[in-house]
Write a structure and sequence with these properties.
With 499 residues, the protein is of the alpha/beta class. It has helices at residues 30-38, 42-48, 86-102, 122-137, 167-192, 200-213, 224-230, 233-239, 293-308, 353-364, 380-386, 398-410, 444-453, 484-494; strands spanning 2-6, 18-24, 27-28, 59-63, 72-80, 107-110, 156-160, 217-222, 247-253, 263-267, 269-273, 314-323, 334-337, 343-346, 371-376, 391-395, 415-417, 435-436, 461-465, 471-472, 478-479. The structure holds ligand BES, manganese (II) ion and zinc ion. Zinc ion (ZN) binds at residues 270, 273, 291, 352-353.
Length: 499
């Protein structure tokens, strides 16, 4: 999709479609009013008849609107004017673009970006309009041989800004929005691919591909022998039941760009989580192909960052493998010595994410990091706690946690701070090893984070549990690309701490 920015009057646009908003209840926006004036009351007449009342998410397509130069006018309901905030803005853009994509119009000029969103600047609105629009046209049809694609897909969208003086900032944030959207798309594609295609080796190839495409990125992949030589036995305990080889993927962005210590992102890359010997129930087990969405988030973030090119030094680490039962699989009660030297009693082989992350967290120490953030579809309990609205943000440094929550708010990709009081560590006590990999049923996301914290003592660390936000339950919908927008916003915010 191609995006451009423009100023100008809606009735003068020579385009396939002009998109203008209507507030609830039947209140025309300035751009709708301008069209109405040119068309001598045509729009207000329709609104008066009750065909468009302005409720958020509603649309009305009009053809042959008198005295305009466009083929169509799409009216979009924006909801109550005083409630027009981040989420409503997203919904309005998404609704408009989804609708356009189903019509014969291959381009449009969208005036919705001129409606002021509370507490946001025009630059923010353009950036997020681009992200919302790309999200709305996303379609994963690579694996369908029947042609289900839209006949005349949208090719070009123009967003308008109120003033000529807005143009330069809007053009810059449009480019940033595209970069973030590209990162989100990569994360969604990887998430949606099934486990027989998106294997650890496939993720490694994606990392190499990024390194090939972007000069600022380099990639390196450790194979099973190298993983063994490192002593990542917690990671190996998870992969050993599968015949598909594991990979430990390392990405680096911006080596030499700053003198600062690097920021490290770690993504959980379980390409399929059957639970292992602690086998999951059959219903919905297919969803566990999404258990590599942390890894996909890291790869997507690297792509977005390489396109934005900030002065940052970032390391990405992805332990990638399958979690399957077999005669070679880890058994409940097995004890392994992790890379940190701590022994772990694996009481439940389905609590595998924390095992592979434990070794990656220890591995991160060698970079002497400024901060480490791990991203993982770690616990079902996270979905119970926060649903699909926000990921859980845990950590050993309140300022770091706050900065991630703040970035999420700004990116409309929410995170919410979770407590990690010391009392929660109790349940992880093991009778036979230093620590057990599961505690009781209560506060499962927090005890999982407590487990991770034992391997992240040497630096400032945060953990994003994205189990509820990485994909949608609806089988037609799939991966969301979250938390790429949150991570990119957070990384960009770190640029000001440079040198
Ligand atoms: N990948 C799952 C977590 C998950 C569950 C993500 C549902 C998305 C939706 C993770 O590896 C897992 O199985 N966690 C267990 C932990 C338990 C055994 C302590 C869980 O949440 O049930
Ligand atoms: Mn599991
Ligand atoms: Zn898992």
């Amino acid at each position: 999709m191609e995006f451009t920015i423009k100023t100008g009057n809606p009735e003068k646009q020579r385009t396939a479609c002009v998109v203008a908003g209507v507030f609830d209840n039947r209140k025309l926006t300035l751009s709708a009013e301008r069209i109405d004036r040119a068309a001598k009351g045509y729009i207000s007449e329709i609104v008066r008849r009750g065909d468009m009342e302005g409720r958020l998410g509603t649309t009305l397509m009009l053809y042959n609107v008198p005295d305009t130069l466009c083929d169509r006018v799409l009216l979009v309901g924006l909801g109550k004017e005083r409630d027009f905030k981040d989420g409503e803005f997203y919904t309005a853009i998404r609704t408009a673009v989804k609708f356009l994509n189903e019509t014969g119009a291959y381009e449009a000029v969208i005036y919705l970006t001129e409606e002021k969103v509370r507490r946001r600047e025009i630059g923010w609105q353009i950036e997020h309009a681009v992200i919302a629009a790309s999200e709305a046209v996303y379609c994963f049809s690579e694996l369908k041989t029947e042609n289900t694609d839209v006949r005349r897909p949208l090719r070009k969208l123009t967003f308008t800004v109120p003033l000529r003086s807005d143009l330069s900032i809007a053009e810059a944030t449009m480019v940033r929005g595209q970069a973030i959207a590209n990162g989100v798309t990569l994360a969604r594609n990887l998430g949606n691919l099934p486990a027989n295609i998106c294997t650890p080796g496939y993720l490694a190839a994606q990392a190499r591909q990024l390194a090939h495409e972007y000069e600022d990125i380099s990639a390196e992949v450790l194979n099973v022998d190298e993983i063994k030589k490192e002593g990542m036995n917690a990671f190996l305990a998870v992969t050993q039941g599968s015949i598909v080889p594991p990979c430990f993927i390392k990405l680096e962005y911006g080596a030499g760009k700053t003198k600062n210590k690097p920021l490290v992102l770690i993504g959980k890359g379980i390409t399929f989580d059957s639970g292992g010997i602690s086998l999951k129930p059959a219903a919905d087990m297919d969803r566990m192909k999404f258990d590599m969405c942390g890894a996909a988030g890291v790869l997507g973030t690297f792509r977005a960052i390489a396109e934005i090119a900030p002065d940052l030094h970032i390391i990405g680490l992805i332990p990638a493998c399958e979690n399957l039962p077999s005669g070679a699989a880890t058994k409940p009660g097995d004890i392994v010595t992790s890379l940190s030297g701590q022994t772990i009693e694996i009481l439940n082989t389905d609590a595998e994410g924390r095992l592979i992350l434990a070794d990656a967290l220890t591995y991160a120490e060698r970079y002497d990091p400024e901060a480490v953030v791990d991203i993982a579809t770690l616990t079902g309990a996270m979905v119970v706690a926060l649903g699909h609205e926000a990921c859980g943000v845990f950590g050993n440094n309140d300022a770091l946690v706050r900065s991630l929550v703040h970035a999420g708010e700004d990116a409309v990709d929410r995170g919410w701070a979770m407590p990690m009081w010391h009392d929660y560590h109790e349940g992880l006590k093991s009778g036979f090893a230093d620590v057990a990999n599961v505690a009781g049923r209560a506060a499962g996301s927090i005890t999982a984070a407590c487990f991770l914290s034992r391997f992240a003592k040497k630096y400032d660390w945060a953990h994003l549990d994205i189990a509820g936000v990485a994909y949608e339950e609806d089988r037609q919908k799939g991966a969301t690309g979250r938390p790429v927008p949150l991570l990119v916003a957070w990384l960009i915010s770190r640029e000001r701490y440079n040198d």
